[in-house]
Design brief:
The chain is mainly beta. The chain is 11% helix and 39% strand. It has 8 helices and 48 strands. It is a single-pass type I membrane protein. Belongs to the type I cytokine receptor family. Type 2 subfamily.
């Protein structure tokens, strides 16, 4: 095959369409001398320099896909080329099927040619007796041919046809094929006008037709279709349906069992059956609950399983719960879905539970609420896969005893599930990996239930994802109390077995660890060193290993001085309290007087200044103080003369000012008093104050103290005048007589 171009002409030894996997020769004939280039799918496969020959060839082997082959001269972008399409020759036509739609004068036929030829293939149907040479069509990509042709005469009862299929690689023919027209008549697609249903059956109302056979198919949503045939022409009844179930309905029809073809299925019609009262009792179980402090009865949590669709027979609107106590007292409770549990507190009672829909109530399930006895037998389990385990236990009672096995995720009793078995083995399914469960096995005996519990059930687990966070509750010099938070359930990745408390000495770098069994979450650390600082953290364990640590808690052991400070503060508070109490007691006059008498006995003894070593030392070589005092005469009743005071400077440590005042009195009774008014003052030269100023300040002080009445009286034995019996100050004069201490009033 030659294809000419401006530069060259190309040729394929087997044409453009070749057998898949075959080989052939591709040639190019150039119109001029040039350097020749040959390409396959854009890739150069041959290079020939200028020579005398204008033709160049290349062998193409085992072609399996579409290829483009081209040639051009070097330096000239314009090519010449050919597209090669590999394929197969057609097979013999077969599987002829023809259809004549009712009330139509055309016949449509379809047949196959075996495998797809890949390349273009022509189909042809020829009808015997028809002047038309043939009815042509193109085979599709799936290897089917189809053709439609008219029926020339209405009285024809059969047809004879030949089939022809051809392409560039070959041609195939089959026939003759005889077709009886009555066998290829196809009724039109029927229509379902209406559907009416009760709880158990539905009636289909369809359009009028003359067919004698109808086929019906129906199914609930996502369920396999059921099919049956019926000879009714207008109304079709379907029975044995389920209540409160949505169904899809379709029909098709045929002339009769032996003649004609089935029509297409009608468009689906959907209808829901009506509800019925549930006819199955609920599956009920119970667990004991902690009772409220104010309740004197026992408390239980009642659980029940939701009825499946076929048992519920409608939408459950509520659950009726009745509590009947031994005294005949009853109490009714209504629970609304999705709730499937109820807390009940009663004593020696039974409970009945039933489900209610729009059509009625299910049979009542009655269960006696009794506390189960504990069974000492050990339960064991082993994982079967990531979602199930096998549970084993020893026999509780005689053979044939029914057991209830219940389980739920730790911390989520709302997710409880249970099964009833009569063997000592149960397969628990529907478990979630990395989830921890707990449960129990209860033997339902006539003498009372007996229960054995099990914890730490898991189908598959790994190390915890998160560690607990510790906190310090208290600390002392040598010990501290630490507690830590719960790990969230989703972070545990299984059943926790224990905790490890790590303590690191910041000074030495030593790390100590302490093991604490789950579920305890506190520990007392002893042996701490005062003033030493530590870091503390906690990790959690499952059977799969240790998880990461939680937050790090730094702390320091307290000092001993802190303890002493606490004692000092406590002692100071006690002393202050005692002083306040004493101050209040001193407000009583009798106590006040006796206290003053006691204080007088504690006054210090004042020595005679004249006998002091300092006075004697400086008396000879220094000036002396001279006092001039008239001889006292008891008969004279006149004012005493002024006393002349001479001040002679002394060293600061022995400088004194000594003054005497003398008063006379006419009565003997007042003489002693006058004498006691003689007063001797010792004033340091560094702080001398005039007598008039001292008296003024003293009087002001007394007035201010009298006005502040909260404090005890300011009278003090220290402020009483000193009694002098003569002009000379001696130790005998200032001596205090305590003989009358007990007689003070």
């Amino acid at each position: 095959m030659l294809l000419a171009g401006a530069v060259c002409t190309v040729r394929s030894s087997k044409g453009e369409e070749v057998l898949l996997g075959s080989s052939f020769t591709f040639s190019c004939i150039f119109n001029k001398q040039c350097t020749k280039l040959i390409f396959r799918n854009g890739t150069q496969i041959k290079y020939i320099k200028k020579n005398i020959s204008k033709e160049v060839s290349v062998n193409i082997e085992n072609i399996t896909e579409f290829n483009t082959l081209s040639c051009r001269c070097e330096g000239n972008p314009e090519p010449c080329g050919i597209d090669i399409k590999p394929g197969y020759p057609p097979d013999i036509p077969q599987n002829l099927t023809c259809v004549q739609n009712m009330n139509s004068h055309n016949v449509s036929c379809i047949w196959t040619t075996g495998r797809s030829t890949i390349i273009d293939t022509t189909c042809q149907l020829r009808v015997h007796g028809d002047l038309h040479l043939g009815y042509r069509s193109i085979m599709n990509s799936t290897g089917f041919c189809h053709s439609t042709f008219p029926i020339k005469s209405s009285v024809m009862s059969q047809l004879v046809v030949w089939l022809n299929v051809s392409n560039t690689l070959g041609i195939k023919t089959s026939g003759p094929h005889t077709i009886n027209l009555i066998n290829i008549v196809k009724p039109s697609m029927p229509e379902i006008l209406n559907v009416s249903c009760s709880s158990r059956w539905c009636s289909l109302h369809i359009d009028n037709h003359s067919m004698n056979l109808v086929e019906i198919q129906y199914s609930a949503v996502n369920v396999i279709w059921d099919t049956f045939q019926n000879n009714d022409k207008s109304r079709l009844n379907i029975s044995s349906l389920h209540p409160d179930t949505m169904y899809n309905f379709q029909i098709r029809r045929k002339i009769n069992h032996t003649v004609g073809l089935w029509s297409d299925w009608s468009q689906p019609k959907r209808k829901k059956t009506k509800e019925e009262a549930p006819d199955k009792a609920l599956d009920v179980w119970y667990l004991q609950e902690l009772k409220p402090p104010e309740s004197k009865s026992k408390c239980f949590r009642i659980f029940w399983k939701e009825l499946n669709i076929s048992d519920a027979k409608g939408k459950i609107q509520r659950y009726n719960i009745s509590v009947l106590e031994q005294k005949g007292k009853s109490n009714s409770i209504i629970a609304v879905p999705p709730s499937r549990n109820q807390s009940i507190c009663c004593y020696n009672c039974s409970v009945s539970v039933s489900a209610v829909n729009s059509e009625g109530q299910s049979p009542v399930k009655i269960i006696q609420l009794r506390l189960p006895g504990l069974h000492t037998g050990l339960l064991s389990h082993k994982p079967l896969n990531n979602h199930s385990i096998a549970l084993f236990w020893p026999k509780f009672d005689i053979a044939g005893t029914e057991y209830v096995v219940h389980w739920y995720p730790v911390g989520n009793i709302e997710g409880i599930q249970w099964i009833r078995v009569v063997d000592t083995t149960a397969h628990i399914t529907g478990l979630q990996p990395q989830e921890c469960y707990q449960g129990a096995v209860t033997a339902l005996r006539s003498s009372g239930p007996k229960m054995a519990t099990i914890k730490g059930i898991s189908s598959w687990q790994s190390a915890p994802e998160q560690g607990p966070d510790p906190e310090l509750h208290w600390k002392k010099t040598e010990s501290s109390g630490v507690a830590w938070s719960e790990i969230p359930q989703k972070k545990r990745r299984g059943c926790l077995k224990k905790y490890t408390v790590y303590l690191m000495d910041n000074l030495k770098g030593d790390i100590h660890n302490f093991s604490v069994d789950h579920p305890k979450r506190q520990y007392v650390i002893s042996g701490l060193s005062p003033r030493q600082c530590y870091n503390l953290w906690v990790t959690a364990w499952t059977d799969a290993g240790e998880g990461p640590r939680g937050s790090v808690l730094p702390f320091c052991a307290p000092l001993d001085s802190e303890k002493m400070l606490s004692l000092v503060i406590l002692a100071g508070g006690a002393v202050l309290l005692a002083c306040l109490i004493l101050l209040c007691i001193c407000q009583f006059s009798s106590v006040h007087r006796r206290f003053l008498c006691c204080c007088q006995c504690l006054l210090p003894i004042i020595p005679d200044p004249a006998n002091s070593k300092c006075a004697k030392t400086y008396a000879d070589d220094q000036s002396e103080i001279k006092f001039y005092l008239d001889q006292w005469d008891s008969s004279v009743n006149e004012e005493p003369d002024n006393v002349e005071v001479e001040e002679v400077p002394y060293p600061s440590i022995c400088t004194y000012i000594k003054s005497f005042s003398q008063e006379s009195s006419s009565s003997d009774a007042t003489q002693f008093t006058r004498i006691t008014d003689i007063m001797e003052d010792y004033i340091s030269t560094h702080g001398a104050i005039s007598g008039g100023e001292e008296e003024d300040e003293y009087e002001k002080g007394e007035r201010s103290l009298d006005e502040f009445e909260f404090f005890p009286s300011t009278h003090s034995p220290f402020l009483e005048p000193l009694v002098l019996t003569g002009g000379k100050l001696t130790l005998d004069v200032v001596k205090i007589d305590c003989s009358e201490f007990l007689d003070c009033t």
